[in-house]
From TrEMBL:
<dbReference type="InterPro" id="IPR036388">
    <property type="entry name" value="WH-like_DNA-bd_sf"/>
</dbReference>
<dbReference type="InterPro" id="IPR000717">
    <property type="entry name" value="PCI_dom"/>
</dbReference>
<dbReference type="InterPro" id="IPR045114">
    <property type="entry name" value="Csn12-like"/>
</dbReference>
<dbReference type="GO" id="GO:0003690">
    <property type="term" value="F:double-stranded DNA binding"/>
</dbReference>
<comment type="similarity">
    <text>Belongs to the CSN12 family.</text>
</comment>
<protein>
    <recommendedName>
        <fullName>CSN12-like protein</fullName>
    </recommendedName>
</protein>
<dbReference type="GO" id="GO:0000973">
    <property type="term" value="P:post-transcriptional tethering of RNA polymerase II gene DNA at nuclear periphery"/>
</dbReference>
<feature type="domain" description="PCI">
    <location>
        <begin position="223"/>
        <end position="415"/>
    </location>
</feature>
<dbReference type="GO" id="GO:0006368">
    <property type="term" value="P:transcription elongation by RNA polymerase II"/>
</dbReference>
<dbReference type="GO" id="GO:0016973">
    <property type="term" value="P:poly(A)+ mRNA export from nucleus"/>
</dbReference>
<dbReference type="Pfam" id="PF01399">
    <property type="entry name" value="PCI"/>
</dbReference>
<dbReference type="GO" id="GO:0003723">
    <property type="term" value="F:RNA binding"/>
</dbReference>
<dbReference type="GO" id="GO:0070390">
    <property type="term" value="C:transcription export complex 2"/>
</dbReference>
Amino acid sequence: MNHFGFKNNPLNNLLHDIKSLIFQQDGNELATILSLEKFSLTNDLRNTLVNNQNLENSVAKILDSPWDDVVMNHFLSLQVLISGRNYALAFGHQCSMIQALVKVLTQSKEENWMLPAVYMASIELRKLAICADTTASANTNKKSAQPDANIEEAASHLMNLFRVCANDSRTSIEVSKRKGMMNIINQLFKIYFKINKLNLYKPLVRALENANIDEHFTLAERVTYSYFTGMKSLYDSDYRKADRLLSFAFEKCLPKMEKNRRIILIFLIPVKMLYSGCLPTKTILQQYNLLQFEDLCASIKEGNLYEFDQAIEKNSEFFYYYGIYFTLEKLKVLVYRNIFKKVAKIVQNHQIPLNHFVDAINYYQSNRNRIELADDDKMTMEEVHCLLANLIADNKLKGYISLQHQKLVISKQNPFPKLSPDV
């Protein structure tokens, strides 16, 4: 099939190619032709699109409904992008294209070959929405515009696609549109995380779990899905689930996709530390250019509270950007635990006076007595009671506090157990 070198009417030739692909049910090739980014326009076709003032008739003469609306709105998006990069107008046409694809999915019974074209249109809808919102926010004449108006509208259109796919439950899975559920959910996740509307996350997950067709999704879709659900579990403080999901995403992500693997690691590293106490090696931090975690890991290992606070503050911009700053703050409990381990090792007795812990914490809080601590910054006995009680309650320390003797009585066997039974 020749998509290039059109001599007489390049637009008509392209439309006949599209009609042929629809007849052949070639969803992958159709997705490429109907892509704003991936399909390379010849100069002749570009000029024809820009100068054609009657696209609707041109398309309707060759394609049947509702495919004619799909293609016409795609061409209209191309027109405005070629002419002047009017993202808001292009986004409007892309929305109409998605609406036409909803009709295609609804009218197509027991077939799902068009899903690749749906995926491509969905991705480009989201990207156009972001461009349109960015342009609107930069326009000082539109101060009253909602900052995420277009991306929220995009989510609404994607939900319509998702419903059509999810409702195709009576069709055999091989030809069911339910195969498109995870791909569209991933696009919605990208939007919900961007606009911070994670309350819309649960119904999608529930619908996918009820479908129970995980083995029919591609590995790439499952990796992306695991990444987003792993992040959500991290934000919900469900570190065991987050560890499982993010570990799957990292292990199954292709090695050549270094950028994606790096982003997964940014969330997996804190999860591993919180859930199992596992610190990343310097080698992996260097390999993925994540040295922002190096000083943090060193301070945890050493049990140095001052260096821990300095490491957090030094890279606070990076940690804030990825939304893990407050998650990393929770790692301070591991610093306290390692200080207590050091004290227990020095004392070599299962009954340890609590004032030893107070002195040790203040020693490391003052960077080994290198700085003077204000009275308000010094650890008190009551605060040590709370720290030890929390460690014992979380099974990070085996023992009990004797208030009468102001001592910590630790187990003679494995007083500092592994943080996770899975490790």
